Amino acid sequence: MNTDDALPRCRWCNAAPEFPAYHDTEWGFPVADDRRLFEKVCLEAFQSGLSWRTILSKREHFRRAFEGFDFHRVATFGPKDVERLLQDEGIVRHRGKIEAAIRNAAAAQKVVDEFGSLAAYFWRFEPDPATLAAPQTASTHAASVALAKDLKKRGWVFVGPTTAYAFMQAMGLVNDHELGCHARAKVAAARRAFKVPV
Q1: Could you list the residue ranges forming a coiled coil in this record (predicted)?
Q2: Options 18, 22, 67, 126, the catalytic residue
Q3: What is the pTM of this model?
Q4: CA distance 37 to 168
Q5: Catalytic site residue 114?
Q6: Is 22 marked active-site?
Q7: I need a surface site. Which of 31, 45, 143, 152 has the fewest CB within 10 A?
Q8: What is the CA angle 110-29-16, rounded to 5?
Q9: Which fold has domain 31-193?
Q10: 156 an active-site residue?
Q11: pLDDT tens, residue order, the chain (198 aa)
């Protein structure tokens, strides 16, 4: 992707050459696909203590290692799979985070049983735009606190209020692109056209 196009972008795009493409085509656009939603929860957990650049550079390998983030398959992983993943140099080899992904997969199945889809569940926590702080000035919101609390009650781990808000930013539950960013209007249009899952 040509990043010498002089388009105004969120400042964080300057931190790594991989960021502009992700920013322009994914970050903030509304998502209703359960696998992508589950993937993002998992990758946010793996990012804990690390940079997003590290995770983004390993994302394709994560997808292969975790069966495309099909949570029905991941939920069947056992101790041998944990040991296999701990030997996989293409991912972040952290036992607690690997086990969290497996545990969260089982919890995701229960959410789907209750709400019909992960999308229907997560979008229940979409905050009122009028309650949001100025773009990229907050790391949590009452909605992300509520989401994290509810996930914990349902057995999810490694998803605190800050992680939940980063998830909301990335998956389009909020439009947190800077006011002068070229993608802000595109995301706003995508959100207007988006049919919130029920």
Answers
A1: none
A2: 22
A3: 0.95
A4: 10
A5: no
A6: yes
A7: 152
A8: 105
A9: Endonuclease III; domain 1 (1.10.340)
A10: no
A11: 345 588 999 999 999 999 999 999 999 999 999 999 999 999 999 999 999 999 999 999 999 999 999 999 999 999 999 999 999 999 999 999 999 999 999 999 999 999 999 999 999 999 999 999 999 999 999 999 999 999 999 999 999 999 999 999 999 999 999 999 999 999 999 999 999 999
